[in-house]
Structure formats: C-alpha cells, structure tokens
Amino acid sequence: MGSNRKTLLLDFGGVLSLDFDSESKSTLCAMLNIENGALVESLFANDHSRLALVGAISDSELWDRLCGHFGVDRSTMDFVWDMFWRSQIINDELLVLLDECRKRGVNVSVLSNMWCCGGTRMRSLTRLTRLIDQIIISGEEYCRKPGREIFDIAISRLGCFPEDILFVDDDARNVSVALSLSMSGLVFNDTRQGNAFIEQWIRR
C-alpha cells in the first residue's frame, strides 16, 4: 500500500550535476583522444556503456572494453573515472531547495541511468547523499529509462502513489513515461525554472 508522502524523484546528470569544470573536461578529452566537449557522449553513447547501463556486463568487463575502445591502459581509465567524478559541478542552488523540501517532509530520491560503479561513486558524494532517501541506478536494476520497468521499480521502492511523485529529468522522453504513469513531471532546462516549478508543486 502506498503512502501519500510527496516525493521528488530526480535525475542526476543534467539536474543534480550540471556539468564538469572546464579544465578537467579538457584534460579528460585529451587523455581519451576525443573532441573537446564530447566527454559524456563518448563515455556513455557506445555499445559497451549501453550494456553496462542495464547491468548486462560487469564493471570489470566494462573497463576492459572501454580501455580497448579508447586505446588507453587501465591506470589511465581509472584516472579518467576518478577525475570524472571529482570534477562534477553539483547544482548547489537545487541542493538548498532539496534541504528545504526534506524539512517539509518531502521524500527526495534519485533515478539515474548509470553503471553500477557510477552508483557507488554517486553514493560517495556526501553533499548530495545527506539529502537523498534512495538512489536507484539502472545498472543495478537491469533496466533503464525511458523504459517503463525502471519507473515501476521506483514507484514500488519509494512506497508512495505515482500521483504523489514529481519526476524531474532533462530528457523529455523520460518525463513523458513518468506522466503516462500518473506522476507529475518536469523537463529540467535550468535551475531557476526547475526550482520555481518544484516550489509550486510542493505548495499544492
């Protein structure tokens, strides 16, 4: 049986994390021999990453494949992954609002398309996790957005009614699925727009 507790369900990349610092981004692109500015696309929009995003290959196999894909050794790939997380620009303005949401009794959780090892790193971001009730990762659930299955898992895991969930994502395809399941939804464009919508939703 679901509860009537309001729940914010947020994407990570593009919502809670806005970008990477420019110097680190340039360094990582150079290390992987990719075009500057194509870091996220190059890491996640390849066949190896797509398999890892639904848990079809292990983290170890993913690293081996990515080393071959980018033509680098394991130590370089490990360094890239560490810097990838250390250089994240976290959305501090949104975190301030999430802190206020929790004080008002709102559940705050994350639903992200991410490798299992990415889920581990995400949970190490204490600035974020102190405000988060649950982190649901596609690689751990063997399914990903925009598929319906991972939304059904999230609804069950959160223990609330879909009507009490606001799903926030920067991809309209994902938000469309949430809306079809009776959640409220927001396509996140920028923090000012996102925070204003969330504050309005809380007051309903």
Mind explaining what this structure looks like?
There is one protein chain. With 204 residues, the chain is α/β, with parallel strands linked by helices. The chain is built from 12 helices and 7 strands. The longest helix is centred in the middle third of the chain and has 13 residues, at 74-86. The mean pLDDT is 95.
Instruction: Report the portion of residues in β strands.
Output: 5-15%
Structural class: alpha/beta
SS element count, helices:
12
Describe the biggest sheet? 5 strands, parallel
What's the count of strands? 7
Mean pLDDT level: 95
Please state the CA-atom Rg, rounded to the nearest Å. 17 Å
Task: Reconstruct the topology from this structure.
Blueprint: E1 7-10, E2 17-20, H1 22-31, H2 39-44, H3 47-53, H4 59-70, H5 74-86, E3 88-90, H6 92-103, E4 107-112, H7 116-122, H8 126-129, E5 134-137, H9 138-141, H10 148-158, E6 165-169, H11 172-180, E7 184-187, H12 191-203
Helix pairs in contact: 1-5, 3-4, 4-5, 6-12
